[in-house]
Design goal:
This protein is mainly alpha-helical. About 75% of the residues lie in helices and about 0% in strands.
Length: about 100
Amino acid sequence: MTDSHNIDSTIERLYKTIAGRVDWDPDSSYTAQLLKNGNEKIAQKLGEEAVETVVASVAEDRDAIIRESADLLYHLLVAWVNSGITPEHVAKELERREGVSG
């Protein structure tokens, strides 16, 4: 896998882009609009994307799973930014669980 397709660097870049939209005009940015609308709207969108990802998985539609997973990850990162959570916080929790869950 080339560095340009590294999930870690992609998530980090997207997270930084989303965090940079916090003070943007909501009329000029979908991300800024979501952040302005707060946790309830972000959670609603996150839930919608999760359901769409599940539907694509059940249908075994690989391309749809990829698209919906990207949407889900984007909205998850918006939720993180809105809650003051960084990718490092989540990585630390995943590392803590490594080898525990089996």
